[in-house]
């Protein structure tokens, strides 16, 4: 569980945070205020996902010379990237008050 930056209650689950992006907010169940994640760190944590997806698309597609297999490779890349991104997201992306986390 993750602490709310407003009321410090542990009101957010692992999966709630995984689905939260810098453009989304979640409402705290105990104080009803919104929380978000900082833009920079959320994107940093998502890097393995993109790298693996692109690598799957290029290298697997190249090796088999087929667009269909390239697409399958991208899906495999996303799956592998998710495995890397999820713990990273858990470790380096804190929940923040939307005002302080937004880059304007
Ligand atoms: Zn709260």
Q: What is the averaged pLDDT score?
A: 91
3D shape: elongated
Distance between the termini: 29 Å
CA radius of gyration: 17 Å
* Structural domains: how many: 1
Spans of 5+ residues with little confidence (pLDDT < 50)?
Answer: none
Chemical compounds bound to the protein? zinc ion
Q: What fraction strand?
A: 5-15%
Biggest sheet, spatial arrangement of strands: 1-2
Question: Helix/strand-derived class?
Answer: mainly alpha
Oligomer, anyone? Answer: single chain
Instruction: List SSEs in N-to-C order.
Output: EEHEEHHH
Structure notes:
With 104 residues, the chain is mainly alpha-helical. The protein has one domain (2-101). 59% of the residues lie in helices and 9% in strands. The protein is built from 4 helices and 4 strands, in the order E-E-H-E-E-H-H-H. The protein has helices spanning 14-18, 39-64, 67-92, 98-101, and strands at 2-3, 10-12, 26-27, 34-35. The strands form 2 sheets. It has a two-stranded antiparallel sheet. Strands 3-4 form a two-stranded antiparallel sheet. A hairpin with a 6-residue loop joins strand 1 and strand 2 (10-12). Helix 2 packs antiparallel against helix 3 (67-92). The radius of gyration is 17 Å and the shape is elongated. The protein binds zinc ion. Residues 4, 6-7, 9, 11, 28, 30-31, 33 line the site of zinc ion.
């Amino acid at each position: 569980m993750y602490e709310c930056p407003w009321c410090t209650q542990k009101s957010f689950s692992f999966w709630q945070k995984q689905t939260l992006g810098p453009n989304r907010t979640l409402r705290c169940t105990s104080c009803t205020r919104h929380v978000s994640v900082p833009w920079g760190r959320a994107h940093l944590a998502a890097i393995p996902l993109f790298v693996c997806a692109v690598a799957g698309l290029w290298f697997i597609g190249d090796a088999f010379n087929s667009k269909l297999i390239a697409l399958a490779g991208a899906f495999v890349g996303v799956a592998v990237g998710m495995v890397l991104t999820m713990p990273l997201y858990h470790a380096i992306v804190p929940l923040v008050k939307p005002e302080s986390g937004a880059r304007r």
